[in-house]
Amino acid sequence: MKRSIRFFTVSALAAGIAACGGGSDGSGSTGTVSFDVTDAPAMEFSNVTVAFTGISLKPENGEWVEFTFDEPKTWDLLDLQGGMSEPLITDEEVPAGPYSELRLLVDTESSFLVLKDQPDIQKTLAVPSGEQSGLKLKGDFLVAADTTTDFTIDFDVRKSIVNPQGESLADYLVKPSLRLVNNLEVGSISGEVDYVTINSTRLNSAELANCSDGYEGSAYVYEGADVTPTDINVNREEDIGPLMAIPVTDADNDGIHSYTAAFLTAGEYTVSYSCQLDDNESDDSIQFEGTQNVTVVVNTEAKAEPIPLVQ
User: Fold this and answer.
1) Are 248 and 219 in contact (CB under 8 A)?
2) pLDDT at position 282, please?
3) Which residues lie closer than 8 Å to 38 by C-beta, 6 or more apart?
4) Residue 251 and residue 226: Cα distance in Å, rounded?
5) CB 143, CB 22: distance < 8 Å
6) For 6-31, b where at least 16 C-beta lie within 10 A, e where not — what string?
7) Could you give all domains of the chain from N- to C-terminal order, each with its CATH number?
8) DUF4382 domain: which residues (predicted)?
9) Could you give the CA distance from residue 159 to residue 278 in angstroms, rounded to a whole number?
């Protein structure tokens, strides 16, 4: 069953106990874990269907803990945006303590994608050689003893799906660009974009580049305050781009477009907007506007200022 974003009301003390109570002491203590999958939106695809066959977790000082699904769990990841998620495993018992890595197992033969400009063609997907049909996420996380810890894996289609430019037998490759969050530590950002005003201003400006045809823009979210916005470029050696880029939508057809950036850990973020297409790989820069700082608080939806900002 698809889940909407789940915020948990806990006191700071309770959260601290949960975070610190899972240290491995060799006593064989266990905890239970749940892992969901979500997606930071992409623009160029109309369907990205991925079939997950299992998930494996690596304790820092132990052997892999593996969960193989009886049937592949297959979802169009583009349905899992704006705080929606689907469960991979729920309330499974595992050794308590620190973990250093997880791996999502993927059945590439049952996975495919569809481009917006080629709606009748299914493109093949493959995992790069050496990944053992799995997508690895390295990084520390903690399973607390004698309690349940809920995590969400942000698949991030826009960064994970790349065009190999003829260097692979598959049309596209699924590369591991995953982000893991503890659901007790997250909030979200929502905001509005006055695309009609922005578009008309650019059409009459000699200084601003016009908005891309048929594209209504994206809100770019960066970790930290006062970040200078940059585009997404998967070829950069350093990860200096946005944490995610959220296409804005006009659900009510009133010219006011909205966005929601979900599963963000508490802290400071920079949000900016561009109505120009970002092809992920080009060094051509795009123009941003409405850049602002937003503070994310646990269990809270932070409201960003409307873009363009009211002066």
Assistant:
1) yes
2) 55
3) 80, 81, 83, 84, 85, 86, 152, 153, 154, 155, 262, 263
4) 30
5) yes
6) ebeeeeeeebeebeebbebeeeebeb
7) 12-177 (no CATH), 187-303 (2.60.40)
8) 30-176
9) 12
133, 160, 137: which is closest to 41 by C-alpha? Answer: 160
User: How many residues appear in the chain?
Assistant: 311
Quote the CA–CA distance of 118 and 56 in Å, as a whole number: 35
- Amino acid in position 139: G
The tokens 């160029």 sit on which residue? 44
Name every residue whose Cβ is closer than 8 Å to that of residue 281 and which is 6 or more positions away in sequence. Answer: 163, 233, 234, 235
**Helix (H) or strand (E) run with residue 203 in it:** helix 195-203
286 by Cβ neighbours in 10 Å (0-12 / 13-18 / 19+) ranks as buried
Q: Where does 206-266 show beta strands of DSSP type E?
A: 218-223, 244-247, 256-265
Read off the DSSP letter of residue 77: G
Given the structure tokens 């409405």, which residue do they identify?
290
Q: What pLDDT, on the 0 to 100 scale, is given for residue 14? A: 33
Distance CA 204, CA 152 (A): 44
Q: How far apart are CA 99 and CA 110, in angstroms?
A: 30
Query: Rounded distance, CA 126 to CA 133, Å?
Result: 8
User: Residue 228 carries which DSSP code?
Assistant: P
Pull the structure tokens for residue 39.
Answer: 């997606």
Tens-of-pLDDT digits for all 311 residues of the chain?
555 544 333 333 233 333 333 344 455 899 999 999 998 666 678 899 999 999 999 999 999 999 999 999 999 998 888 788 999 999 999 999 999 999 999 998 899 999 988 989 999 988 876 555 578 888 899 999 999 999 999 987 777 888 887 767 789 988 877 889 999 999 999 999 999 889 999 999 888 889 998 888 999 999 999 999 998 875 555 556 898 888 898 877 777 899 999 999 999 999 999 999 887 655 567 999 999 999 999 999 999 999 987 54
